[in-house]
């Protein structure tokens, strides 16, 4: 029941898997920079610009508006990720998983080396 | 003569409590008939849909500290507390973008499954499970103590029986109904919480003729600090204190074991992704409500209300409800107060049940099954141990909460839980998933150091170290309420350095397997309804991607 590591390695090196990882990274890196910067700016403003946060804009305080903006930003990033995942990542995942299934199907179908399948006696 | 369990029992809130408890018991009975094997006990048979799991995550995450705690903090301190709340919602972006789907793809029941996947199981699981237990038990005691104080104030039932009541129901849900009962209690609680929040927010806005400007003017004028109420700087002694508080929530969420565990209850990675999106939608909307209602409490209850809401502000929302309903003693006031109290009770029950089931996973799945018995036990034994663990954990939590009583500072305990989660669990989880070089030494040393650093720094923190403003604390002016800004870098550095100082080619080779599985979903644990055969025995489709 040993799964040979070379199988996984060859999947990991397959063009399909590399394409999935590349496309995902191309999305995740910039979006990560965006949300981290957006939140840290808010956190630093809250700490170091109290007078500005207390300014009244549209009847409410700027700090409250920027807080609501954090929630809107979170919703926006979530929406963008969901759309990208469905349209781009899922088909690529399927292709890469097919490579894994083709590589050594007889071995892969047995969940041997993972935590999920210790040598449990059948119930 | 009956025992002196209560000074002044309030019939109305208690009877609504009774209804809530009866409904949850009915759910538990229903769930118990669907809970047989380990997959149904911990993962609800992986049959929870994305939307359902989104509600359940919201119900699992939004504790009484989100609902009553943060509204109270906003009542007391204004803007600073809003910042903490925003950190707690933005915190779901790392969960969505890097963790949820990979967790579902490569784990079975616990986050520790993923951390230990390619490392040496026994040492890794031992330390990681200890981290889980540390987070869960600290958080559990915080919730139980908070529950006791709250129920006493709201119903007149005194502290000790309140804690026993909450503890007993939590154990019943978990032991008899497992994850299925826990999930549905969380879903219902999230629904109740959203409805109560919407009613409160609309009512508050109506009081001010839906004129936000009027609401904000009144709130500022009702605060002793006036304009500073919306400028911040009232809750924390230092700017660093505010930043560190925000970081703890931002990074701790992605390391909370009871939240991560929820991703194993859905059939596939797509549902895991969808469930985080639903949770983000619900929690974000609720946090806007909390900000409005907290500000509204300040505007309506005013400075006169400060003595009544307590030192932590926890009673600001119930008192606001009473005031909106017509004031103390009026029928409307009593009813609204009772309803909000019942929602608070449901909130607490849903969270503590989620915590106990996470603890049972750490003890039975990680420690007993995989460390002590090295996987040779049967599933029946694993579930049996899990139930014993849940019972022991419940009894211990009740005992410690009663022994410590309201002497425990709830906000310190919550801060400690988020600090450990962000400094011990999160670094190991991220490195395990994304860094090929990461190895067992790195995980064991890193998690231990992260855990120790959190504990030591909390000991030196402002609320714990004796003396006003922690004078004489070894950290001097760097002693903070929440030390995450120091402990998180320590946790990541320890993982990194200990990894570089050692070498484990086997862990690096097996990274390919984890990497392919976590990124593609290939070979993920199969979905199946309650009672379906355990995935390991079921014939597998070559491709288990939705």
Task: Give a verbal description of the structure.
The complex is a heterodimer of chains A (123) and B (546). By secondary structure, chain A is mainly alpha-helical. Chain A has one domain (5-111). Chain A has five helices and two strands; from the N terminus they run H-H-H-E-E-H-H. In chain A, strands 1-2 form a two-stranded antiparallel ribbon. Mean pLDDT of chain A is 82; it is low at 105-123. Chain B has 546 residues and is mainly alpha-helical. Chain B has a single domain (62-520), classed as Sodium/glucose cotransporter, CATH 1.20.1730. Chain B is 71% helix and 0% strand. Chain B has helices at 11-32, 38-43, 50-61, 64-77, 79-90, 92-106, 111-116, 121-155, 159-207, 212-221, 239-252, 257-260, 269-301, 316-325, 331-372, 379-404, 410-434, 440-459, 484-500, 505-520. Chain B is globular and about 70 Å long. The model of chain B is unreliable at 529-546 (pLDDT under 50). Chains A and B meet through helix 1, helix 2, helix 3, strand 2 and helix 4 of A and helix 5, helix 6, helix 10, helix 11 and helix 13 of B.
Chain-wise SSE layout:
The complex is a heterodimer of chains A (123) and B (546).
Chain A: H1 5-12, H2 15-48, H3 50-54, E1 56-57, E2 60-61, H4 62-103, H5 105-108
Helix pairs in contact in A: 1-4, 2-4
Chain B: H1 11-32, H2 38-43, H3 50-61, H4 64-77, H5 79-90, H6 92-106, H7 111-116, H8 121-155, H9 159-207, H10 212-221, H11 239-252, H12 257-260, H13 269-301, H14 316-325, H15 331-372, H16 379-404, H17 410-434, H18 440-459, H19 484-500, H20 505-520
What is the chains' assembly state? heterodimer
Elements of chain A, N to C (H/E): HHHEEHH
Please give the most extensive interface between any two protein chains, plus how many residues each contributes.
A-B, 69 and 83 residues
- Counted by DSSP, the helix tally of chain A is 5
Poorly predicted runs of chain A are 105-123
Mean pLDDT of chain A: 82
| Structure classification of chain B | mainly alpha
Q: Return Rg of chain B in Å.
A: 23 Å
| Euclidean distance between termini CA atoms of chain A | 20 Å
């Amino acid at each position: 029941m040993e799964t040979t590591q070379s199988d996984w390695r060859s999947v990991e090196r397959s063009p399909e898997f590399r394409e999935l990882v590349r496309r995902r990274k191309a999305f995740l890196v910039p979006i990560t920079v965006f949300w981290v910067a957006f939140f840290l700016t808010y956190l630093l403003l809250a700490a170091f610009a109290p007078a500005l946060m207390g300014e009244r804009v549209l009847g409410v305080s700027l700090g409250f508006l920027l807080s609501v903006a954090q929630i809107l930003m979170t919703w926006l990033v979530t929406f963008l990720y969901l759309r990208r995942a469905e349209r781009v990542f899922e088909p690529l995942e399927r292709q890469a998983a097919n490579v894994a299934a083709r590589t050594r199907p007889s071995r892969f179908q047995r969940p041997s080396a993972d935590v999920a399948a210790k040598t449990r006696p059948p119930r | 003569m009956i025992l002196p369990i209560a000074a002044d029992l309030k019939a109305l809130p208690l009877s609504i409590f009774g209804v809530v408890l009866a409904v949850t018991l009915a759910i538990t009975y229903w769930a118990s008939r669907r809970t047989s094997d380990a997959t149904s006990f911990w993962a609800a048979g992986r049959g929870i849909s994305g939307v359902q799991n989104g509600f359940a995550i919201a119900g699992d995450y939004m504790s009484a500290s989100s609902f009553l705690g943060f509204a109270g903090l906003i009542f007391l301190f204004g803007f600073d507390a809003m910042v903490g709340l925003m950190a707690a919602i933005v915190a779901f972006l790392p969960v969505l973008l890097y963790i949820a789907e990979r967790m579902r793809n490569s784990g079975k029941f616990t986050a520790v499954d993923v951390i230990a996947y390619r490392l040496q199981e026994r040492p890794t699981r031992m330390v990681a499970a200890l981290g889980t237990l540390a987070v869960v038990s600290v958080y559990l005691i915080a919730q139980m103590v908070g529950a006791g104080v709250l129920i006493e104030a709201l119903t007149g039932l005194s502290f000790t029986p309140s804690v026993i009541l909450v503890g007993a129901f939590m154990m019943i849900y978990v032991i008899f109904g497992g994850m299925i009962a826990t999930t549905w209690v969380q879903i219902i609680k999230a629904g109740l919480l959203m409805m109560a929040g919407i009613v409160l927010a609309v009512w508050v806005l109506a009081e001010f003729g839906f004129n936000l400007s009027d609401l904000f003017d009144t709130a500022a004028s009702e605060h002793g600090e006036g304009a500073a109420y919306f400028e911040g700087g009232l809750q924390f002694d230092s700017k660093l204190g505010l930043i560190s508080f925000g970081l703890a929530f931002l990074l701790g969420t992605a390391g909370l074991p009871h939240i991560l565990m929820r991703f194993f209850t859905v059939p596939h990675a797509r549902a895991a992704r969808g469930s985080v999106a639903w949770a983000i939608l619900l929690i974000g909307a609720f946090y806007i409500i909390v900000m409005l209602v907290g500000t509204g409490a300040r505007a309506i209850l005013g400075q006169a209300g400060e003595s009544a809401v307590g030192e932590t502000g926890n009673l600001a929302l119930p008192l606001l409800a009473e005031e909106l309903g017509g004031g103390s003693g009026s029928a409307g006031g009593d009813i609204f107060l009772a309803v909000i109290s019942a929602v608070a009770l449901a909130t607490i029950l849903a969270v503590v049940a989620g915590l106990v089931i996470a603890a049972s996973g750490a003890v039975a799945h990680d420690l007993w099954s995989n460390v002590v018995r090295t996987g040779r036990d049967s599933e029946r034994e694993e579930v049996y141990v899990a139930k014993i663990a849940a019972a022991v954990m419940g009894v211990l939590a009740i005992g410690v909460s009663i022994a410590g009583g309201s002497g425990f500072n709830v906000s310190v305990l919550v801060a400690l839980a988020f600090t450990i989660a962000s400094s011990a669990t999160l670094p190991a989880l991220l490195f395990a998933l994304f860094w090929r070089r990461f190895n067992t030494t790195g995980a064991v040393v890193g998690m231990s150091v992260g855990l120790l650093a959190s504990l030591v720094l909390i000991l030196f923190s402002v609320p714990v170290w004796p003396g006003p403003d922690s004078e004489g604390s070894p950290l001097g002016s760097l002693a903070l309420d929440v030390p995450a800004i120091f402990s998180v870098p320590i946790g990541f550095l320890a993982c990194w350095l200990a990894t570089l100082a050692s070498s484990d080619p086997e862990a690096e080779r097996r990274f390919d397997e984890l990497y392919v599985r976590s990124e593609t979903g290939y070979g993920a644990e199969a979905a199946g309804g309650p009672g379906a055969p355990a995935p390991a025995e079921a014939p597998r489709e070559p491709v288990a991607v939705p």
